[in-house]
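Example 3.2
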Amino acid sequence: MWLLRAALLLLLFSTSSLAAHRIVLLAPAAADIIEKLGATELVVGKTRNVAEFPQAQKVGSHIRPNLELITALNPDLLIISSNKFFSEEMAAKVNAKLFNYSPDRLDEILEQTHKLASLIGREDQALRLIEKQRQKLKQLRPLQKPPRVMYEISEVPLTIAGTSNIIADIITTAGGELVTGGNRKLLRFNPEAVLTLQPDIYIWQIGPMNQQPTPPTKRGQYQRLNAEYLQVDQLQYSRANTQSFDNILQLNRYFQERQK
C-alpha cells in the first residue's frame, strides 16, 4: 500500500512541476479562460488591450509584441492567437512553451480550454467550467422561424462576418441564420449587396475595429433596408471564450422577443 501511495505522490508532484507557472498572454480572448480557471496569479505579462491581470506587465500588442520585454519576464508559457505575429522561432528565443488559442467555433472553445488547463495544472477547474458552458446551451428556446442575420465588423470599409468567424456559430446556435457572402472570417462587402440580401436583423458592433460608425438608421442607402438593428460591443462578441455562450443566450432571447 505504501508503494502505491508513494507512486501517487510522485505523480502528483511531477505533474505539478511540469505545469506552467509564468504566463505571458498574447491572445486577449484567452484572458477570460485563464481568469475562470483561477490562474490569475500565473500571468506575468499581457498585451496592452487586456484589462484583466493588473499585476502583469504590458508587453506591447498581440500584433506587435515586444520580444525583449517578454524575454525579461522569463515565462514558461506563451499563449498566442496566431503564429503570424509570434512565430515558433521567436518562442524558441524565449525558451517557453507555445500554446495557440484561436477557436473559431464553440466546441473549439471547450477543447482549447481543456488543453490550456492541462498546461497550467487546472484540469479539475476546466471540467467544471466546460460543463457550466454546456448547461447554458440547455437554456436555449427554439424559434418558430430563424431570423436572417447580418453582422457588421466595420462600416468603412464595409466588412461583415463570414461563416469561419466565431460570430457565425454564435448566431446559428442562438437560432438565427447568418447572412453572408463567403466562408472567410471577414468579408469586404458593399451596401448594395446588403440591400439585395435583405436581412431581418442587422447587428453592428462598436469597438477597436469600428470606432465611430454611423448608426445604420442614418445611412442613406440603408433607408431601403427593412431590418431591425442591434448594437453590440466588439470585445464582447469577437473574443471567443465563455462570454460567447452568454452572447448566445442573449441573442436567443432577443430573437424570441422579435417573434412575439
